[in-house]
Amino acid sequence: MSSARLRFRVTAAAEKAVRAGHPWVFAESIREQNRPGQLGELAVIYDRADKFLALGLFDPDSPLRVRVLHTGKPVTVDAGWWEARLAAAVARRAGLFDERTTGYRLLYGESDGWPGLVLDRYGETLVLKLYTAAWLPQLDEFVRRIHDEAKPTRLVLRLSRNIQETAQQQFSRTDGQTLVGTSPEGPVVFLESGLRFEADVVRGQKTGFFLDQRENRRQAETLSAGCDVLNAFSFSGGFSLYAARGGAKSVTDLDISPHALEGARRNFALNRGEPSIARSRHEQIQADAFEWLAQKPARKFGLIILDPPSLAKREAERARAIAAYQRLSADAVRCLASGGVLLAASCSAHVSREEFFGAVRRAAAESGRTFTELMTAGHPPDHHATFPEAEYLKAICLRF
What we know:
By secondary structure, this protein is of the alpha/beta class. It contains eleven helices and 20 strands. It has a seven-stranded mixed sheet, sandwiched between helices. It has a six-stranded mixed sheet with strand order 2-6-5-4-1-3. Strands 7-8-9-10-11 form a five-stranded mixed sheet. A hairpin with a 5-residue loop joins β4 and β5. α2 packs across α3, α5 packs parallel to α6 and α10 runs parallel beside α11. The longest helix has 17 residues.
């Protein structure tokens, strides 16, 4: 590698964004680059007055050409700097969870100063998810730091699809690879609010479980007593278990995936020792939730949870997603009993809070029924978002 530091100058708009704290520099924003860079190399960005602006990780094959690590005054990036940054992120979670919750996020990418990287805990197992290949050249060193700080018995590597080929060919890394400890023989079990859940840390979606909905699941538990509950897009039954523990008369999982429904059955089996869960009737429907709700089933529910997968994975899908959220909410309202509650959530980053809440509120208003808004919610504290693109999760709760 050349001894000359990799240097960039960027457009005025990009300079302004970085100075304001935005963590990405796009390829089209780069005006000058002093030499070709290598994957994962530290790159320094200078402003128009030739003063230090920021430094970040260089990724030559990504449209996010530099992922910003630091802005402001120059710093020396050495082992101590990395260790302090990791310790600060871990300390940020101090006091958030007790022994009844052993599943939570330790590092949330850019918002914790680790751009393109997520680290989740499931009991004694940690899962490291990489969204940029820029971390691969220093992965061994980073794994040592994680081990020293968090002392897991197991660490599993997950890779986004766009970097799996590079990881395999250049670094002999594969998605689902165990980096520390022994490979899991199946899903690992962890605790959330005293409930036991499985996480498929090797092949499951994201890092194995959707930890970000924890606070909304807790909200569902407080609304479930005596209700027939419908959990649409139920996946592995997280909301359903909370509802059952909250005293739901019955809980119905609705999902198109037989694999997801089987996972929910296993999670219920893990918690049958909880008396209220044992008393709650657990039912399952394998169907497309959009189609099933649109058929206007005769059965009425006291609580309906709508937690679909992202309906807008790119900006071009935003308008269609907003319309879909409104249609889905309208169909759900028709299935609510008098006094029933709708808890609707969105994980579509391209749909803003205002757009999503507006779609649900319009559906409620157009139903002709009187309703009260109980709450709106965003990210849980271990998934705090510090820039707009990180703000994907929102939920709203209405009583009719």
